[in-house]
Amino acid sequence: MKTVVISLGGSILIPELDNNRIRDYLPVLTRIAAKHRLFVVVGGGGGARDYIGIARSLGIDEGTADEIGILVTRLNATLLISALGEAAYPKVAESHSEAKKFAESKKIVVMGGITPGQTTDAVAAVLAERVHADVFVNVTSVNGIYDKDPKEFKGAKYFKTLTPSQLIGIVGKGGLVAGSHNVLDIIAARVVERSHIPLVVLDGTTPKNLSDALLTGKCDCSIVSETRKKILPL
Ligand code: UTP
């Protein structure tokens, strides 16, 4: 049994309030949890961005906008927990310590954001350290790490494998404002570097990609690691 921490982007799980992939993720997550200890950190998605947009238009400061974003991530986490039913611990963990405690139940532990000034990727990266994860997975809307945003730049260079310092060089170019969008936030990238925990970045718009990667090793993804050691399947 391995320990897995997944950062499940809100833009993947609940891109908009009338459009979500929760039902499709249920069998994927329960299949992984049948074999491994599983933690899922859920993002805010379009809902968070909408609320943050309203806060900003009202002249509300960025820190408060972040707090609003955190509430939306916890709302999304509550939806996922409820949909998972018996397979999940019934409460959203509001700190890393709480997540560790909830894991004693052997159920899937779900959490959202915790602190202003970061995203749920950073929450997940630190959680991976705290629970000594074997792998940290970032489920996003692209099939891995590119040197530029592949949705904007046609010639963006793709990395099948890269080192943590290469990752920091790439994501360090992005800014940090509430609701900002980057493949991984810089805090998360720095934690990946210091923790030496391998990071897998994959496209979760097809939910099965996640279970395929972890359970069979079939993965159209980028792997961030210092070593060439085989990481997938678990
Ligand atoms: P997300 O983690 O969802 O950000 O948090 P994201 O990069 O937009 O990711 P996707 O779209 O879900 O994949 C939403 C917002 O909530 C606040 C930030 O403002 C963030 O942009 N937040 C979240 C925090 O301030 N702290 C946290 O720990 C988590």
Description:
The protein has a single domain (3-224), classed as Acetylglutamate kinase-like (Carbamate kinase). Helix content is 41%, strand content 15%. It has helices at residues 10-13, 22-33, 45-57, 62-84, 96-102, 120-130, 164-171, 186-195, 208-216; strands at 3-8, 37-42, 109-111, 135-140, 145-146, 158-159, 161-162, 199-203, 221-224. Helix 7 (164-171) packs antiparallel against helix 8. The strands form two sheets. The chain has a seven-stranded mixed β-sheet with strand order 3-2-1-4-8-9-7, sandwiched between helices. Residues 9-11, 43-45, 48, 52, 66, 69-70, 73, 113-120, 123, 178-181 line the site of uridine 5'-triphosphate (UTP). The site of uridine 5'-triphosphate has 25 residues, from helix 1, helix 3, helix 4 and helix 6.
Helices and strands, with pairings:
Layout: E1 3-8, H1 10-13, H2 22-33, E2 37-42, H3 45-57, H4 62-84, H5 96-102, E3 109-111, H6 120-130, E4 135-140, E5 145-146, E6 158-159, E7 161-162, H7 164-171, H8 186-195, E8 199-203, H9 208-216, E9 221-224
Parallel strand pairs: 1-2, 1-4, 2-3, 4-8, 7-9
Antiparallel strand pairs: 5-6, 8-9
